[in-house]
Amino acid sequence: MDDIVKQAVAKWPNVPHCYGWLALDARGVWRMRDENAQRLQLAGDKLTNPQLVGFINRNYQHDERGCWYFQNGPQRVYLNLETTPFIARTDPAHGLVLHTGEPVGAIDQVCLTEHGEIIVRAGDKVAQVDDRDTAQLLGQMELAGVACTDEALLAWMQEPRGHLVLRLGDAALPVKSIVRDALPAHFGYVREPAA
Fold first, then answer.
1. InterPro entries given for it (predicted)?
2. Which residues of 183-195 are buried (b: 16+ CB within 10 A; e: fewer)?
3. How many CA atoms lie within 13 A of 51 on its CB side?
């Protein structure tokens, strides 16, 4: 958290929290949701200002309920999450990088949803792989030690049988099947926080 934010929280500790005005989409884009976007349940406008996006990235965290927020000075701006708290992209140097710019780090769990979404967990960070990079990682999966064909992967997604792994660098990471709607409960986060 930025020092200026810490100072603001100390100076004004009782500023009311804000809900519904900021969202993170499934491609790792911050979106501002005005009253109209909230009322119509729209994604909202993309935030593109590099300084603002960097400020949000540096001050992004979660509370004890598993609700993610951006600490904007003394105010917590709780986020709506389209999917997971982080979005990961492939990177030649680091393997996977979060939408905040940090390397994912040592992955301790990989899940595949019934819709083919890849979810990774590294410590307390849970990220869905950006759909633009999913095909690349699906091509790195093996079933029972053999490169996984599209047909075999689709069959495994419908009925998970056999040992599916994702090869990332030198690691062979076991893949677990998970239902998309079970992600928040399984990983302990809230998609749409409320007061």
1. DUF2944
2. bbebbebbbebee
3. 0
Distance of alpha carbon 87 from alpha carbon 91, whole angstroms: 13
Helix (H) or strand (E) holding 39: helix 35-39
Distance CA 53, CA 192 (A): 21
For the stretch 174-192, pLDDT in tens is: 999 999 999 999 999 999 9
pLDDT digit string, tens, across residues 122-141: 999 999 999 999 999 999 99
15, pLDDT greater than 90: no
> Hey, what domains does the chain have and what are their CATH numbers?
3-81 (3.10.540), 86-183 (no CATH)
Q: State pTM to two decimals.
A: 0.90
CB distance 173 to 110 below 8 Å: yes
Identify each DSSP E strand in the chain by its residue range. Answer: 18-24, 30-32, 45-46, 60-62, 68-72, 75-81, 86-91, 95-98, 109-113, 118-122, 125-129, 141-143, 146-147, 164-168, 171-178
Contact at 8 Å (CB) between 103 and 168? no
Instruction: Say which amino acid occupies 180.
Output: R
Cβ–Cβ < 8 Å for 84, 128: yes
